[in-house]
Amino acid sequence: MHGIIPYFLHVLERSLFCSPRLHLFYQKYNFTCKKTAGHNFHMQSVSIQGLSELERVRLQEVALVRLMKDFDLGCQITIPKDGQKRKKSLRRKLDSLSKEKRDKESDSQAFGVPLSQVIVNDRRHKQLQEEQEEQRSPSDRVSSLLHLMGRRSTNKELSSSNSSLSSSSETPNEGTTPSTPETALRSRRRGGVSVDCITDLDDSHSRLLEALQLSMPVESHSEKKKKTSDAKLSLNPIYRQVPRVLDSCCQHLQKYGLQTVGIFRVGSSKKRVRQLREAFDQGADVVLDQRHSVHDVAALLKEFLRDMPDPLLTRELYSAFITLDKADQYTVIQLLICLLPACNSDTLQCLLHFLSDVANHAEDSRDADGNEVIGNKMTSLNLATIFGPNLLHKQKSSEKEFSVESSARMEDSAAIISVVQHMIDTHQSLFTISAELQNELLLSLLDTDSDVVHYLLRRKTPQCE
């Protein structure tokens, strides 16, 4: 093709998901890619957080099809609902509580609240801080800015081992906050940036207009309904959805607790943990530093995960996680993670990155001067034993921990621990979406929105013209 080839044709010809219709699509748009360093451009693997909101929703559908087609898990698999879609069920549970308990739970900002709602509460907290910052005097702003820059610098050092996961309290897209009540409502409802905000995140205005003014072909009623739903989703990556309390705990423990022997096993002060919990629940601006006990913060982290109304890995996927075949463990876990709501996936990635860091400091070692450094003794197996029952369970135990004690559930408990240990050991690649899976995703979008696919490819490949 004389050095210039239709984009993806050479890749898709070798793909199981290639189709004449897809060939015609790329020929129609004459979308070409120049050779780079003497080699034709290929689709690259990307972090799941690099996908747009629309892509992440479609990824759930593609992953579900792959799981049902290629693996026999012996159980029914469904895409988990996010916390907002569970509101009716939550209301029914609240109605059965006493007025005192109901009032107490409704006031909670973090603990015992659906994860998606915690994210919404954190966004409101951030917006309130920004509004208060605007009302402060210039001298106060300078002082606050210098303090914030110092904290960001520290956070960046803590997360240098994982470039795809920011330990800072902000991400590039997180700075785009809704400017009107209507856009704010949409952002809070989905946890992402709406399509009408797309110009804030991309420089190519002509291409953005092309993406926003999509052609609408003749289609069936069901296709129109699905397309209407997709039209409300952003074509850009959504902000990192990790609860403030979990992020703060992980950052604190990474800075002060990695060398603490028996972290997560040693007891804590119930009074201090309760005070921290109440502070986060009241929406206070909590800053965890050297004054706070490592064991108190560790207990707070476990308590947050334990009190989630729905476990982080969701009840819908419980059977799928515990029945997977060892030979297919990695691939199946990766696809099951693709099924998770964005807030669950982002939070899980943050937590696993932290737990992996803890496990890397389990053994004794020596520093640069040859001095012995005592390890924390918390291997990935030990951590999985502690956190596994908190991350994946059918129902809450009556005990303070979700440990599985009955002989009838011991087998499930062992499977849960094995799955979580595997996640900790392989977390760096678990959240990477392969080129093949991206091809399936784009082919799925091509069925309803060819113009969207065209726009997404341009955004993904700035090298192409």
UniProtKB/TrEMBL annotation:
The lineage of its organism: Eukaryota, Metazoa, Chordata, Craniata, Vertebrata. Residues 82-109, 151-191 are annotated as: Disordered. Residues 156-171 have a biased composition (Low complexity). It comes from Sinocyclocheilus rhinocerous. GO terms for molecular function: GTPase activator activity. One of its GO terms (cellular component) is cytoskeleton. GO terms for biological process: positive regulation of intracellular signal transduction; signal transduction. The keyword Coiled coil does not apply. SMART domains: RhoGAP. Pfam families: RhoGAP. PROSITE patterns: RHOGAP (PS50238). InterPro entries: ARHGAP6_RhoGAP, Rho_GTPase_activation_prot, RHOGAP6/36, RhoGAP_dom. This is Rho GTPase-activating protein 6-like. The keyword Transit peptide does not apply. Residues 233-431 form the Rho-GAP domain. Residues 172-182 have a biased composition (Polar residues).
